[in-house]
Amino acid sequence: MAKPTVHDIAREAGVSLATVDRVLNGRPGVRANTIERVNDAVRSLGYVRDTYAANLARKTQYRFAFVLPDGDSQFVDTLKLALKEAMAAQLADRVFVKVVPVQVQDPHSVVRALNSLSAEHYDGVAIMAPETPQVRDAVARLKEAGLSVVALVSDLPTSGRDHFVGINNLSAGRTAGDLMGRFVGAIPGKVLIVTNSMLSRDSIERRLGFDEVMSERFDHLTILPTIESRGDPARMEAILLKAALAHPDLRGVYSMGPGNRPLIGALRRSGRIAELTVIVHELTPLTHQGLIDYEVDAVITQNVGHLVRSAMRVLRAKCDGVAIYEAQERIRIDIVLKENLPT
Amino acid sequence: MAKPTVHDIAREAGVSLATVDRVLNGRPGVRANTIERVNDAVRSLGYVRDTYAANLARKTQYRFAFVLPDGDSQFVDTLKLALKEAMAAQLADRVFVKVVPVQVQDPHSVVRALNSLSAEHYDGVAIMAPETPQVRDAVARLKEAGLSVVALVSDLPTSGRDHFVGINNLSAGRTAGDLMGRFVGAIPGKVLIVTNSMLSRDSIERRLGFDEVMSERFDHLTILPTIESRGDPARMEAILLKAALAHPDLRGVYSMGPGNRPLIGALRRSGRIAELTVIVHELTPLTHQGLIDYEVDAVITQNVGHLVRSAMRVLRAKCDGVAIYEAQERIRIDIVLKENLPT
DNA sequence: CATAAAATGAGGTACGCACCTCAGAAATCC
DNA sequence: GGATTTCTGAGGTGCGTACCTCATTTTATG
């Protein structure tokens, strides 16, 4: 009835504690036959290793690196803040976290950072960086070296990462489309989409989802050509202002990525921000204030606290070789309006 | 640099291990003066008890009771399901949970259940039940007996409960109002509110929030007198059907509590469900399907997984006498549309 | 000041596990 | 069948904590 321990397994399998230990920890010196006996006992008794006792005995720490974009992104800042909080809370749980800042626009910077993470100093890595062939290779190398790797916010499929912690961007785009269509209402008009770059996988997926919903359910709205800022706020602001003034029947603006500051600035300058339905991504101090001021109508976001905690849980589980609790690790797409802003 | 242990504290405070232990575990036989010295050492070294090692040594289980409404509420069912999953995941963490079903409409049933929970068999209790004087007293008794108590979903203020795990219902109502106003659009019309009973604290608060937002921002919409089902589905269905047919300019329906099945049934029968903006609470199989079928426009919900996990974390923290990590325990108000339904 | 009472120290055991050593048993090889 | 190699058992130690006992010191009490 009580939780089975290694002693119970030893008894059940008719072997000694030492042998159970060898099997459980993959140490050599056990006949295949005996290994089977032990594993059978584990299964039949439903033994699960007490990871806390194990860590206590092993006196290890989990050493994780979080590779995050450097620079002044409010989203990354809130992410870092959440990470800091989580670290404080997890300190008791033998988790050591190091933040590694990288210049995400430069794949070499990312690769250099990843290559600097050896299995000697780290047990796992969480990476938030755009998908490039170089990064994929570097991740594969980390995996090979025995590190656990999770992709954070932005997925790195085919890189061999253990897990992706983040939202489904197709659904995020569809959600934005749903809200846009409903908020704008039945009157025909135009919708503007802005992004940093249409090359990133996230933007492509969000755009795809948005388009799907618009054509399925709101075809009285016309989508204008996408505005790409390419990381240049001034450029973004200028083009946006021009577009806002050029289309008197513009009804809504959907911003798919970072760069909400120049967006809001331009819309304000155009004098039309109040009448437009503005939907952006990621809840940050800026977008939070935007909601309060009725300048932003909806924010589609992912809870940064959940992101970092999920990343840590998954990394720990991978290190322990334990199955993850899927339902808990699914990051939801949050819709935030003025009224349900978290307090 | 390394994590301080009880040994470090003993050395720092200039006392023996036994004394540190007495202080940390509140055992008697230590002079006030000495207690202070130990506590100072704890503070200055930043000692945090390793709860896992502690539990290992204490070889206790956390024994929690979840007092939940009996009967066929889909919301409670999903809550129970989440509880079951959480139990499976927490089994490794020495948590034992017992579900105690009660007839919530009968305060005596609740009180009887609560009184049956002795400190001998339980360390903490999570309660989901309406607030009545009898229940308040029973909770106070539990606290007195040394149990940790959290109110779940529905708060029990002034009962002395340690914590409330659930959403802010005023904000939930405001959020519903915000969505209703935006989804319905600029055309004047009427809005219907239905609930089980306007006597429950939750309904009152949601209604208050909804009204606030409607009068602040959407005063072209008129709110019809509230329909109360009083737990009678047939009655609800009949009144609702009548109301839906009596007001051709009805634009939206807001359901504040349980009883979504007769609601949707009546609206379907009225033939107007597609044109109405329907906003309900709690994501269940029924409302999930309603979103998919375009019968329900938005669901305002709280994540049951978070609810139970938060309740467990809080109960554990209270039992350990450890501070809770506020940010993680704040239950958000989730807005679910067809497009961001969790997969 | 003697004595009882309270406070403290020293030390042990246990929890479930990892990791180590060494001796002895079993299997394999020539 | 003896020598060698491969397995296995018995046992110990330590991780950070709880909880227990028993002696000893300190403090309060009459």
UniProtKB/TrEMBL annotation, chains A, B:
<dbReference type="GO" id="GO:0000976">
    <property type="term" value="F:transcription cis-regulatory region binding"/>
</dbReference>
<keyword id="KW-0805">Transcription regulation</keyword>
<keyword id="KW-0804">Transcription</keyword>
<dbReference type="InterPro" id="IPR010982">
    <property type="entry name" value="Lambda_DNA-bd_dom_sf"/>
</dbReference>
<dbReference type="InterPro" id="IPR028082">
    <property type="entry name" value="Peripla_BP_I"/>
</dbReference>
<dbReference type="Pfam" id="PF00356">
    <property type="entry name" value="LacI"/>
</dbReference>
<dbReference type="InterPro" id="IPR000843">
    <property type="entry name" value="HTH_LacI"/>
</dbReference>
<protein>
    <submittedName>
        <fullName>Substrate-binding domain-containing protein</fullName>
    </submittedName>
</protein>
<keyword id="KW-0238">DNA-binding</keyword>
<dbReference type="InterPro" id="IPR025997">
    <property type="entry name" value="SBP_2_dom"/>
</dbReference>
<dbReference type="Pfam" id="PF13407">
    <property type="entry name" value="Peripla_BP_4"/>
</dbReference>
<dbReference type="GO" id="GO:0003700">
    <property type="term" value="F:DNA-binding transcription factor activity"/>
</dbReference>
<feature type="domain" description="HTH lacI-type">
    <location>
        <begin position="4"/>
        <end position="58"/>
    </location>
</feature>
